[in-house]
Request: fold
Amino acid sequence: MFLLLLLGPVVLQAWAWRSLRGRVLSGAITRPAALIRYGGWALTPPLLFVGFMLGLIGVEEVLGTPIISEELGRVTLPVSALLLGSGLLGWLGFSIVCVLQWRAPGAKV
Reply:
């Protein structure tokens, strides 16, 4: 499961990169719109993970029984930081490549 948690966001970012690149090259969307959409896709996994963990903590407090293991509690912050860092790094790379290289056919720069 841990491998899925770390590889899933990378696969999601690769899919979003390829999809949005094609849409920008075809002129279907503008570069700023692609940047915003990619940012949404890139930052979804860390937001979902943190929301899921906070939800589990809330349920744990309401029920009074331990749901989250000690190991999972200890790796929550590093995994959240890793997911956020990969999302921001992907967004930065996408921004640089989008601004420097991609031109829509017939679009004036």
User: Anything to note?
Assistant: The two ends are 45 Å apart (CA to CA). The chain is about 80% helix and 0% strand.
